[in-house]
Input
Amino acid sequence: MSQEFRRATDEESRNCIIAYRDVPAAELAPGAMSHILAGKNMTLSFASLKAGSYFPVHTHPCEQMMLILKGELDAILEGVLYRMRPGDVILFPAGLEHGARMREQDCEILDIFSPARPNYEEKLKQAVAANAQG
Output
């Protein structure tokens, strides 16, 4: 079962591929900066979290999965701490209280939200506008 595919042109690649680190970072909470990518039905958040910082407990109407890329943190779900290391994933169901407490080292995480988070899209717009001004 072999199929032939043509290689995308440079222009096609520029229109389809995003280097997330090229997206201006938005502040999510003190010590939490994120490169946010918004799709129609989902939002991705590539966040850098400072050692010792705290992402306040909150709820939202969308489902969230968090993947630890670098470092360790304690995820908080419904008042329980869960130690997470690189490669670990946790599901935060819609409407349940959750947050995170960073440990002794900086962390990098990927959060995936479905459906999309309009408030993150607004943070992205603000970061892009601030980046354009200076």
Summary: Residues 118-133 form the longest helix (16 residues).
